[in-house]
Amino acid sequence: MDTTNSVAIITGGASGLGEATARALVEKGSRVALIDMDQRRGEKLVTELGNAAIFCPGDVSSEKEVEGIVETVKKTFGTFQVVLNCAGVGGDIKVVGKEGVMPLEAFNRTIQINLVGTFNVVRATASTLMENNPNDKGERGVYINTASIAAYDGQVGQAAYSSSKGAVVSLTLTLAREFANNGIRIMTILPGIMDTPLLGKLPENIRERLAKQVPFPPRLGDPSEFASLACHIIENTYLNGEHIRLDGGLRMGFGRR
Questions:
Q1: 256 within some domain
Q2: Helices vs. strands in the chain: H and E counts, helices first
Q3: Does residue 64 contact residue 39 with C-beta atoms inside 8 Å?
Q4: Segment 212-249, tens digit of pLDDT
Q5: Residue ranges making up the domain that contains 178
Q6: Residue 252 lies inside a defined structural domain of this protein
Q7: CATH code at position 92
Q8: 161 catalytic, yes or no?
Q9: Contact 46/69 with Cβ under 8 angstroms?
């Protein structure tokens, strides 16, 4: 898929991995529709990106809101060819911790945003991609979902987070097969320890300790590296039905206390 003159929907597009990807795509000549709950950051970014971007505040787990946003994007840009799901929540909570048993709502909230939100955006956009005219390679659209290395290397307290990201990984091949006859590809990126606003809240000594765990390069990942991979996936037609770790070779172990 040519990134020049394409249109991309990016959830979680106001900050972190989504923001970096939006900037990279606009630089390549794409137009972007950013979906995020943070209206202030979203409107600020759109002001920077100019006419190539619109901001659509919304909750990815809401069926009605996402369907409305899809219609707004189509009215603004005509159609879209790329959908990047970067919206998600982190956090950790033990099943049985100092404050007692994990509330079921805490587990459900993570699943609802990370997994159901991802699927909700896919289901709301699939029909539009199927209606696109195929390019000279028979391609109509590309999905890129965001999981995490926690899908495989889940740590203590990540039962909800790892479950949600593991499920996103499992969707990859299934949806690639379902959409194959429509000329639609689907890929998933599994970031490692990335230098996003979420990690920016941690004390510097903890950030340094995390960075030293990465084999090479021994540092936190930069959101621009995620954006670079996302752009390559969009442009490389033979990438389909697979998930890619972006982690500097990191394999999270088990640290017994």
A1: no
A2: 10, 9
A3: no
A4: 999 999 999 999 999 999 999 999 999 999 999 999 99
A5: 7-246
A6: no
A7: 3.40.50.720
A8: yes
A9: no
